[in-house]
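Structure (tokenized):
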């Protein structure tokens, strides 16, 4: 049926009209595809970002086979999104949107290339596609880089050493070759630092690693490159964020590769798919950008954190195994399954007369891929920047193939229609091949469609088994952290929002607390967002109302150390400083507090507890309706504290400041 429908849909040049639409209703135009006069810019690939931050947090604790299925949809060639590029955060211990990602060097004399999950993710991507390009970019840096200042460029040699350690560690410990490295995400760049980074890369035999700058706006980097010939020599790619498909004259004058090195960031429904379809074409058509990279790869973080579900697909329920292959995955496939980095764009104005756009690419060996999109304004708005009004109407497009493409006889056809009114979309369906007649063919295009026409016969839409149905986070959840060789440095489902909480082996403890979870960031990092002054890790279900949270705690910092357990926690990510909830604190000076906020300003109750540092204690927080009570070591410490808001939220653990502290036998019910 699909093939037959495809035959009707494609009015070939010998005259099939569109079904049920009079030809008069259509605008029509002709477009010439020719390589005789040379080719356009080299295509560098389509990719996505893991990080910036903690966007893949929940992915790692999916059980098999579901975890591998998700990874296949993202990275396996001719399967799903078939991504050409994976960009990851170089973790810096600071909040970078939806959480913190651990640094490979928490402290100056510390190196560990097994923290976090980006190493694992890069290896899984390479396993599926050995050709995939890898990019590393820092959002935050550990405090020691700035020697007390919230700035990474005062000691550029230290920062360069830190970044190069990450690149060398990727190779030494994981056999990963990093292809590109960035400077500092969406923050200032330093010309001196960039030059020193290039020098240090070369000194360590890393000539193949290319530099992207500055992962912010087109300016001032483009202008500075035109003024500074030495800098011009060491920057390989100008990467701009959310360019709205436009570039600037200075960027073109540099003659550098131009990338949209972060884009999309839009809720992954049909409108998100429309946004993605439009910018994948128009970033080149309008802005000469030869790579577009989506933030983010997969929405694997609690949905109520900032920018929930702004990934190409959704995988936020490791406890149930449920995930969803969203429409943007199949929009990606329209380009990625039929092109490769190293192909070239054809020199052609890709604007369609009736609105929408097309691009054409070739491998230089006779293969041709054409991608057409007809996204309407209201069905393709991205999260940013604002989209000026435009109109798209049904139209007939006739393409003339010239030069080396004149001999092409048939083109494979893949089609998506985003169904906004009907509510049912048709995604990445193979239609009947189109016959090219004397070097031309015609296509009747409706609105909100994507077509790929290609000489390649390799495209594939996976028909995988359905994942398990969704389930809420378990209402009774325990973790004793008793694991000798954990596969990851962080305990499952805990989402660090300030600080870093890692598995710890407490060799000095002969008793029940050999294996614990420890907060390890002891100085405020060089921040990207507004990290809290306290550390905090969230877990559970944001919709929880009544709950009991129990945890063994161990304050390591003498005199002014302190820890908390909490419930009904209402915020995280870049908004972590304004987090409210019910917080039960105990301090090394033997006092306790109950507060309505993470900052500790809204005091609901306080008193003496007898808690001391360097000893284990058990805290219990019970929240029922408008009332809360707390136990210490199983005995009531405070009760009948009235709670007004928030009315629901996550459970959490954390510390009073950037300080060492340990947690064990966590239980929430």
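Design, position by position:
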């Amino acid at each position: 049926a699909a093939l037959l429908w495809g035959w009707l849909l494609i009015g070939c040049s010998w005259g099939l009209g569109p079904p049920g639409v009079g030809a008069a209703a259509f605008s029509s135009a002709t477009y010439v595809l020719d390589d005789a006069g040379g080719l356009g810019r080299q295509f560098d690939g389509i990719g996505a970002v893991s990080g910036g931050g903690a966007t893949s947090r929940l992915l790692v604790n999916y059980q098999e086979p579901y975890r591998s299925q998700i990874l296949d949809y993202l990275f396996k060639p001719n399967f799903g999104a078939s991504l050409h590029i994976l960009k990851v955060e170089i973790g810096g211990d600071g909040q970078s949107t939806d959480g913190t990602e651990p640094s490979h060097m928490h402290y100056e004399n510390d190196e560990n290339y097994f923290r976090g999950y980006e190493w694992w993710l890069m290896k899984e991507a390479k396993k599926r596609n050995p050709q995939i390009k890898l990019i590393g970019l820092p959002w935050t840096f550990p405090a020691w880089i700035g020697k007390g200042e919230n700035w990474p460029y005062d000691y550029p040699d230290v920062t360069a050493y830190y970044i190069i350690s990450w690149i060398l560690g990727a190779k030494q410990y994981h056999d990963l070759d990093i292809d590109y490295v960035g400077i500092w995400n969406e923050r200032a760049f330093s010309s001196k630092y960039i030059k020193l980074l290039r020098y240090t890369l070369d000194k360590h035999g890393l000539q193949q690693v290319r530099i992207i700058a500055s992962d912010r706006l087109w300016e001032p980097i483009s202008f500075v490159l035109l003024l500074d010939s030495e800098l011009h020599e060491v920057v390989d790619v100008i990467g701009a964020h959310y360019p709205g498909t436009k570039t600037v004259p200075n960027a073109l004058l540099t003659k550098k590769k131009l990338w949209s090195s972060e884009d999309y960031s839009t809720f992954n429904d049909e409108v998100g798919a429309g946004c993605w379809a439009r910018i994948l074409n128009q970033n080149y058509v309008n802005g000469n950008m030869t790579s577009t990279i989506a933030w983010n790869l997969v929405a694997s973080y609690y949905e109520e954190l900032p920018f929930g579900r702004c990934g190409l697909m959704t995988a936020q329920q490791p406890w149930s195994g449920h995930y969803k292959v969203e429409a943007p995955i199949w929009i990606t496939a329209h380009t990625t399954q039929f092109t490769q980095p190293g192909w070239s764009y054809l020199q052609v104005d890709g604007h369609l007369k009736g609105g929408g756009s097309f691009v054409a690419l070739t491998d230089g060996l006779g293969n041709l891929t054409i991608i057409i999109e007809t996204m309407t304004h209201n069905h393709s708005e991205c999260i940013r920047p604002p989209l000026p009004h435009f109109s798209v109407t049904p139209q007939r497009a006739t393409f003339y193939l010239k030069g080396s493409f004149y001999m092409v006889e048939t083109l494979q056809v893949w089609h998506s229609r985003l169904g906004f009114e009907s509510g049912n979309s048709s995604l990445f369906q193979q239609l009947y091949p189109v016959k090219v007649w004397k070097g031309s063919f015609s296509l009747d295009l409706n609105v909100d469609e994507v077509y790929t026409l290609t000489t390649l016969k390799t495209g594939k839409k996976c028909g995988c088994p359905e994942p398990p149905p969704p389930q809420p986070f378990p209402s009774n959840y325990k973790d004793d952290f008793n694991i000798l060789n954990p596969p990851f440095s962080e305990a499952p489902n805990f989402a660090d929002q300030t600080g870093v909480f890692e598995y710890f082996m407490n060799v000095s403890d002969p008793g029940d607390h050999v294996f614990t979870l420890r907060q390890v960031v002891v100085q405020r990092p060089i921040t990207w967002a507004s990290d809290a002054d306290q550390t905090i890790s969230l877990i559970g279900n944001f919709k929880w109302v009544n709950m009991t949270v129990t945890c063994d705690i161990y304050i390591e910092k003498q005199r002014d150390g302190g820890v908390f357990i909490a419930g009904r926690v209402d915020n995280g990510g870049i908004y972590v400083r304004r987090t409210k909830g019910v917080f039960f604190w105990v301090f090394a000076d033997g006092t306790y507090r109950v507060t309505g906020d993470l900052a500790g300003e809204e005091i609901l109750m306080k008193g003496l507890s007898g808690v001391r540092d360097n000893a284990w204690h058990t805290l219990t927080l019970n929240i029922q309706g408008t009332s809360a009570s707390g136990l210490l070591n199983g005995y009531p410490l405070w009760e009948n504290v009235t709670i007004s808001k928030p009315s629901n939220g996550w459970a959490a653990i954390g510390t009073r400041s950037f300080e060492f502290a340990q947690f064990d036998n966590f239980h929430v019910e």
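Reviewer-requested clarification: The radius of gyration is 27 Å. The chain is about 15% helix and 30% strand.
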